[in-house]
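During the no-cost extension, the postdoctoral fellow (Dr. R.K.) reprocessed legacy sequence entries with the updated structure-token encoder. One reprocessed record is reproduced below for audit purposes.
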Amino acid sequence: MSGQGSIDLAPGLWDIAVSSPGHWAPVQRVEINAGERELRLRLWLSATLSGALSFPRGDKSPAEVTLVFSSAPGLDESQAVDKVSTVCPVSNGIWRCDAPAIPLDVQVRARDYIPYYVWDLNLTTGREFSLGRVILERGASLVGWVKRSDGGPVEGVQVSIAPMGGTEKGQTAPRFLPAAPARATRRGFFQLKKLSGGDCWVTATTTGLPPGTVPVNIAADAETALHEPLILAGLSRLTVQVEPPVDPWGAAWSLKLVQVSEQPGAGHFSEEAAHGTADRSGRWSADRLSQGRYLLIVLKEHEESWHTEMVEVAGGVEQSVAVSIGLVTLRGRLRLGSSPLQATLWFGGKNGADRVDMHSDKDGVFEGLLSRTGSWIVDIHATEPELERRLEVDVPESSTPDVEITLPDTLLAGTTVDATGRPWPGARVTIHPLAEQMASSFDSADEEGHFEFRGMTPGPVQLWADGDADHTSGPVMFNVEEASHAAPQTVTIREKLHLSGHVFSAGEPVGGATVTAVPGPEVITSVRPVRTGQDGSFSVSVPYNTRTVDLRILARGYVYKRLAISLPSPGPIRVALPTQGGRLVLEFPDPPNPRNWSSPILVAYHDGQWDYFGSLERWSSLNGESTDNPQLKVIPQVEAGDWAFCFVTPGKKRPASPAEFPRGSCVSGTLLPGGELRLVVPSPPSQTTTRMSENRCPRQAETGTSGQRQESLHL
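Re-encoded structure tokens follow.
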């Protein structure tokens, strides 16, 4: 069957539908620009799908259900249908909709209920197929797939879920779990129902293979989907050869394997898999390892980490890895101003993966062995005077490098008080240097509310004090002067402002969405993300002196949304989430070095509005995109419009728009609805040469502009 026709349409975004008796066709969304365009529309012979709804006692029957279907695997490409959805009205508990007469996978979705799945339906042209009674249940659910590394059958594999029990800070366990494990279908699909929100371990088990386990954060009153399948594979053996075979003091190396898991939206989780001592030849083996990613750590006595690397372990194999550890003798001196400072220094950070401890004596002299030269993060702790600092130290290329570390003899002290001026003892005080891209430092106010920070680098700092979960000072700006002890500061702690709203899409609430509130464009302090409830509602608290809030809403299946809110808000905020977005593909020929804290950082602008690139990276991970390749970042489901990516020098004021960056610091282009924008990000400029100018960013992808003329669309 074929036909032709044409219609005149104004430029813009249009939904094109075609109908014919006995046939079915999906609705297509099209971006119309000026001029002529030819569009090909396909039709399929149709059948009818129907079913009867069963829902909890006391609930009213939904007015409609949404069918989401796609062609079953193995269908010829000429007949295959990508995932599409259609709304079916419900009358007296019965729903009925047209569908293509091909083998289909079908989801039945109703607002506020757990989705209902049916696989491998065989529909006959012109006939009605009834799913029978479709049972609607409330609560959260988890869906995913199981695979075997040996290609064996997965039907009947049991999938269970267990709470993490708070193994990480902030994790929560579900209040109730299914009474029995779910069983995977012939194709490996499983669904666990009637859950509540929380952090869990999901485990697949079958006879003859070790279990496969991944972590997951289950959204409350919503469906959560695993973005990677649960893998069932045989156990493996990993052999490690370390050179030199013993540590610099002649002792055997200790080795540790930590299995690392990352579930999009759930973060990183780790569990020690093996720990032992190498023999005198530097050889060590770990047996009975399950397939996955492991952090290999080589340690000397006192548990100092000298080397770390990530290792991929395949299922049911024997693998080997060689580790070469460099030995560099470092000598140095530590001073506070012009005076020597006795302290403990942690090269690699006090809690870093690669960590080496050294101690400076009363003359400030320290000496020790490092595994490499180059840039190191160093944490410093002194008791006389009391001092905590983190800074970046460059160890020069040499067989016996020498470094001088001089901390400015500065003091910033103050008192935390409440709104009436009375001391607030025990407040957690955070100070963040704005002139350098380093981590914040912390102190706890004493019984009289006093706190102090020594050795801070001169320049602007942001300071805030948290009294408890509902009270904070909000960010306060100070300037640390060179070699001076500033007058004591008073930091007032007040009750936070509360911001509430609802997230919805196409008029329906979106439950389980993550809402992050970032107070103001220049504020470093963060606010803990919250999740929307079943009705799409959310509530967040921000510092009392916040004037603007950037909201970021992350919900799988919808478009990444960011919007700026002015405070105080006149009422609850309504956030509409589109369901169709575009795709950004960023290529990095020269990726920025994440180990260099002083290197320029990448920021994003969407339609002139600034955003953290890190937020986009988290969104990419949430949607299951790989983070392993530093030269390629794929960011799906983002809003159409003008996008720009620019490098900012740490400590410099963030430009209001890409136009204020020097030439070559940015790349930009226009993303069309449902389209893809591919950009090549320029190399990061050196910190010493980055300056603000009036030159505009070069545009990497130019597109024509739409006039007001109508376009003739040929069908």
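The mean pLDDT is 83. The two ends are 13 Å apart (CA to CA). The remaining legacy entries will be reprocessed before the final report is submitted.
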